[in-house]
């Protein structure tokens, strides 16, 4: 994982947001590029929440509150991510939901912190994000330490893997979750027989897969996103590699079977989504998924529910503070105790979700199948 850096608490914003009236909330995700389907999924979650907030006729400091979504595209690129962040700061947004990837979320967080604008990431899992000392950063899901470590343990204890190979895409997310997976394998008594890397735009994996095939792994773990994992699965089949394929939340999407084509067999792919509900909480999530499909004509990919809840949590803090000024509503955001479609949401002193869940999944018949929810 990248080295952590200490940072001063957020400074006061240059210009406070209005108490009522139009309240601008920013959202940033990759709505172009290879994982645009994930970025659009997230953005749709934000739009759904904004529409519901405006239909609720909320008032803040005695004035009707009208929420406006300012959506930006970071293309999963750190440079474009910081440019998008600066654009939202210049637009004087009251808060930001995003980014999707750790590699864009972390550099953008400094810009928001310097401007005193709270940021809730629905999906960035690299631990560094909430360990920089910034006062206004929050994470809606469990981090890579929990996610990668749990998958490493599962590979050895449940899939009975003795020899494991690891590939990562060298992004902050991919490398970070792969590192934690490797630690989890070692702690459970497994052996990592090879570690290779690619990049998040690669399409040819024959060289690294051929190298790993010779090591006869029982499991191949990929730290990266579904747009790369799909073609990788196809090439594994072409090379006659029968190992189980594992990954984090980046590959755990509804789109993966389409991206993999005939390269995916039932019960071959195992992944973990950083989040999850069980018991009575399932009712709210199932309703959200049904409403989302009705509204947008497509299934939830991964994190739209966490974006939706992020927007609602931020607005709830503004209502509680009777202000959309970040200086005034940030204390309420820190005290969040909110029942959303993703479960009960509250944050620890760093801004991490308390009692974060993981949902272990496999794919059968081209559909995600939940194996268990772990806290």
From TrEMBL:
SUPFAM superfamilies: Periplasmic binding protein-like I. The keyword Signal applies. GO terms for biological process: amino acid transport. Keywords: Amino-acid transport, Signal, Transport. This is Branched chain amino acid ABC transporter substrate-binding protein. InterPro entries: Leu-bd, Leu_Ile_Val-bd, Peripla_BP_I. Pfam families: Peripla_BP_6. Coiled coil: none annotated. The keyword Transport applies. It comes from the Bacteria. It comes from Hydrogenophaga crassostreae. Residues 23-364 form the Leucine-binding protein domain.
């Amino acid at each position: 994982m990248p080295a952590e850096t200490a940072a001063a608490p957020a400074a006061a914003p240059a210009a406070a947001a209005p108490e009522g009236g139009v309240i601008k909330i920013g959202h940033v995700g990759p709505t172009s590029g290879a994982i645009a389907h994930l970025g659009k999924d997230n953005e749709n979650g934000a739009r759904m929440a904004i529409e519901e907030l405006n239909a609720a006729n909320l008032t803040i400091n005695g004035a009707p509150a009208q929420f406006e979504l300012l959506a930006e595209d970071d293309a999963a690129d750190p440079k474009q991510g910081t440019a998008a962040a600066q654009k939202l700061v210049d637009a004087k947004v009251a808060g930001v939901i995003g980014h999707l990837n750790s590699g864009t979320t972390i550099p953008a967080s400094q810009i928001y912190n310097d401007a005193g604008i709270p940021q809730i990431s629905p999906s960035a899992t690299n631990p560094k994000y909430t360990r920089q000392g910034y006062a206004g950063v929050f994470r809606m899901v469990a981090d890579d330490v929990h996610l990668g470590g749990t998958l490493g343990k599962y590979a050895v204890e449940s899939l009975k893997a003795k020899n494991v190979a690891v590939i990562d895409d060298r992004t902050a997310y991919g490398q970070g979750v792969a590192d934690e997976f490797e630690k989890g394998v070692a702690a459970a008594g497994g052996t990592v027989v090879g570690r290779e890397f690619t990049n998040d735009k690669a399409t040819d994996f024959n060289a690294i897969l051929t190298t790993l095939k010779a090591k006869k792994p029982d499991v191949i773990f990929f730290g990266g996103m579904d747009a790369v994992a799909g073609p990788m699965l196809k090439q594994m089949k072409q090379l006659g590699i029968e190992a189980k394929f594992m990954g984090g939340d980046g590959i755990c999407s509804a789109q993966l079977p389409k991206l993999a084509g005939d390269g995916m067999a039932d019960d071959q792919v195992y992944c973990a989504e950083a989040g999850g509900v069980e018991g009575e909480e399932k009712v709210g999530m199932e309703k959200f998924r049904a409403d989302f499909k009705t509204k947008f004509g497509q299934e939830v990919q991964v994190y739209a529910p966490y974006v939706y809840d992020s927007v609602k949590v931020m607005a709830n803090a503004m209502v509680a503070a009777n202000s959309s000024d970040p200086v005034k509503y940030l204390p309420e955001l820190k005290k969040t105790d909110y029942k959303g479609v993703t479960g009960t949401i509250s944050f620890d002193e760093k801004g991490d979700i308390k009692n974060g869940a993981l949902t272990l999944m496999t794919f059968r018949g081209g559909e995600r199948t939940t194996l268990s929810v772990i806290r």
